[in-house]
Every structure is written in structure tokens, then in C-alpha cells.
Amino acid sequence: MDYTYAPGRNHLFVPGPVNIPEPVIRAMNRNNEDYRSPAVPALTKTLLEDVKKIFKTTTGTPFLIPTTGTGAWESALTNTLSPGDRTVSFLIGQFSLLWIDQQKRLGFNVDVVESDWGQGANLDILAKKLAEDTAHSIKAICIVHNETATGVTNNLATVRKLLDHYRHPALFLVDGVSSICALDFRMDEWGVDVALTGSQKALSLPTGMGIVCASPKALEATKTAKSVRVFFDWNDYLKFYKLGTYWPYTPSIQLLYGLRAALDLIFEEGLENVFARHSRLGKATRLAVEAWGLKNCTQKEEWVSDTVTAVLVPPYIDSSEIVRRAWKRYNLSLGLGLNKVAGKVFRIGHLGSLNELQLLGCLAGVEMILKDVGYPVKLGSGVAAASAYLLNTIPLIPSRI
Ligand code: PLP
């Protein structure tokens, strides 16, 4: 059976992969090229320079790796740590859980700090661990900036403050897969040692590129890190950076041109405007959830995420049914609840190439589905709350002023 055709556009509201802008699609619609010709290194050089801007780093070294977020995690860990090294890692949802699982499988000694799903990383416990660790046995703090499964954003500035306060030399490794390029991210200011994202999230590209950025301290750590690494070895990349040819193996030419177009669009809009747009989309979504009389999975205002909202449903409703119906009936793709929150939450992704009216369409769809599944929602209530807020906050489109 062919599932692909449905009239009109698919309303893609999963928190990644996200909508790809038309200019990016067109930029990628091209033949393969010889990556050893002068053209591809010249393009790569501009990408490596410009990608640093989305991490807000001038001192970091970026790597554009043919992989996904999961591979980017592995690259961050294996290039900087040795088997047996102690990491402190926060378990707050499915993606932090998967990263912890990877750390364990790579042979690290993972000190897991667990919180309820819906809460942020427990930084009081981190403070205690750092204070106690006078021998500096902790080699890295691993934290997911934005936990995509629960819609929780962690406070990275506080992590850096704690490390500085206790003069602790641990590396600071950050998963920015559903934050970088959508939420304000300050690699240099926060002293992040490795930050990473995946192309299919806020950069609004196809899946297939892991973008990793390493601080000078992280690069130094590669010299003593004994983890086995082959495909992800940064030193192979650095060797080719020096030669000016950039690639230790074959890159996806189409993704490189796509990244060029994606960065151009982001810079044209303005990175701060991109963040402001995500902040509007996040707030509008939360206002709709409140108007529906439903609760956000995120337990405190300080952790709310501007890229994804996980909506808790009453116990008599299976949230997976909402997701199923959304796709079958309205061509609306919502995110499922994962693992511990399966059946309990559905997720509205509001990141990447997306505008306010698209979001209102999604919210209207959610209202109809809620009614379909027997939740007593007033049709239009969420859309009204969101649009009343957006009415006063949407600025003119920068390129049309
Ligand atoms: N980290 C976070 C926060 C994610 O949301 C995801 C995927 O959604 C991943 C890591 C894993 O990325 P990938 O599926 O690209 O391997």
C-alpha cells in the first residue's frame, strides 16, 4: 500500500526530522562532484568557518561528520575519554538515557544522576559531586541541553558556574541536538568542551550529518584519550584540514550544499531572530496547552523548551492514539511519547523552518483530535490563546521590512 499520497502538505510537527526549506531542497538537487576537486574544499572551508557561528564559538574546531546525533555522541566521547573514565551524566528522558547507554557500552564508568521525566538535570547533586571530588576522578560532565522526549531545557550556564566554582577540570560535553540553532547556545561563554547537533533538527536539513565542535581543551584531551576510534577520529580530520583538502573520506556533496543554503537562510533571518521565533512558537504552544486544560510534561517554568512541548493527556486517553489519528486523518505528524512516558504524552515539535501560522494549523488539528478521542476540549480555545499572544508579538519578516 502506498502511504505517501495525501492532498496538500504534510504538517510535520515531530521534533526532528523537520521541514526542509525550499531553497535548501533546491540547493541539494544536484549531481555528485569530485570531492578532491578545488571546489569542494573551498565550499567546506566556508562551512567550517560559518558553522562556528551557530555554536557561538571563535576558538572551537568543527567537524562535519557523515553520521547522525548518535554518531556525534560517540565522536565526542571516544575522542576525549578513555575506557574506565568516570562521567557524570543526567538521566531525564529517552535521549539522555540512550546517551548514558552508549557511555556504558563504550566502557566508561557512568555516574548517573536521575530525575523524574519532566524535570531538568539535578544540578544540586552535581554541585555535591564536584565538591566531594577533590581527586578529580570525574573526567566529564555529559548533559543533554534539550531533552527532546520531555521538552526540558537544562541550564548550561549553571553547569559552567559550578565547574568554575569548584575549580573542577572535568570536560563539559553537551548534546545540543534539539537546541543548537533554535535555542541560544554559547559554546565559548559557557566553556563547553564538545557541543554537537544533527542536521535534521534546527538546521532543517536531511538527516545524515553530525556537526561536532571541540574546544582547544577537548582537542588536547584527544592526545591522551585511549578509546578506540576509527571512523570518528578527529585527528584524521585535522590531518586533512592541514592539507587543505578537508575530507578523510567521502562527504555527501548534496548535504554540503544544503548546509551552505541552510546557514545562508539562518544568517539572513539573523540568529537572534531565529531564537526569538522559537521562543514565540514555544510560548504560543504552551498557551494553547493551558487553554485546553492539559498539562505540560515539563514540571517547572525554568525548564520549558522552546523547541518541543510534551503534552500530558488524562489517564483515560492513550496519547499514541492521538498521534495515530493525527497522521491518518489530518496528515499531521506529532511526536509519540517515548519509553517511560509512552501513552502518556504526545509531543509537538516546534523547531527549524517553521512559522507561526503553520503552528496554528497544527494546534487546530490537535484540538480536533482531542475531541475525536473523547477529551472535552473547546474547539478553537488553544488556537485563540496562541493567536492572541502571537498577534502582538510577530515582527515583520526581516527580509520584507
Ligand atoms: N539527542 C537528542 C536530544 C535527540 O533528540 C536525538 C534524536 O532525536 C538524538 C540525540 C539522537 O539523534 P539521531 O537520531 O540523529 O541519532
TrEMBL record:
<keyword id="KW-0663">Pyridoxal phosphate</keyword>
<dbReference type="GO" id="GO:0004760">
    <property type="term" value="F:L-serine-pyruvate transaminase activity"/>
</dbReference>
<dbReference type="InterPro" id="IPR024169">
    <property type="entry name" value="SP_NH2Trfase/AEP_transaminase"/>
</dbReference>
<dbReference type="GO" id="GO:0005777">
    <property type="term" value="C:peroxisome"/>
</dbReference>
<keyword id="KW-0032">Aminotransferase</keyword>
<feature type="binding site">
    <location>
        <position position="347"/>
    </location>
    <ligand>
        <name>substrate</name>
    </ligand>
</feature>
<keyword id="KW-0808">Transferase</keyword>
<dbReference type="InterPro" id="IPR015422">
    <property type="entry name" value="PyrdxlP-dep_Trfase_small"/>
</dbReference>
<dbReference type="GO" id="GO:0008453">
    <property type="term" value="F:alanine-glyoxylate transaminase activity"/>
</dbReference>
<dbReference type="InterPro" id="IPR000192">
    <property type="entry name" value="Aminotrans_V_dom"/>
</dbReference>
<dbReference type="Pfam" id="PF00266">
    <property type="entry name" value="Aminotran_5"/>
</dbReference>
<feature type="modified residue" description="N6-(pyridoxal phosphate)lysine">
    <location>
        <position position="201"/>
    </location>
</feature>
<feature type="domain" description="Aminotransferase class V">
    <location>
        <begin position="14"/>
        <end position="291"/>
    </location>
</feature>
<dbReference type="InterPro" id="IPR020578">
    <property type="entry name" value="Aminotrans_V_PyrdxlP_BS"/>
</dbReference>
<dbReference type="InterPro" id="IPR015421">
    <property type="entry name" value="PyrdxlP-dep_Trfase_major"/>
</dbReference>
<dbReference type="GO" id="GO:0019265">
    <property type="term" value="P:glycine biosynthetic process, by transamination of glyoxylate"/>
</dbReference>
<dbReference type="InterPro" id="IPR015424">
    <property type="entry name" value="PyrdxlP-dep_Trfase"/>
</dbReference>
<comment type="similarity">
    <text>Belongs to the class-V pyridoxal-phosphate-dependent aminotransferase family.</text>
</comment>
<protein>
    <recommendedName>
        <fullName>alanine--glyoxylate transaminase</fullName>
        <ecNumber>2.6.1.44</ecNumber>
    </recommendedName>
</protein>
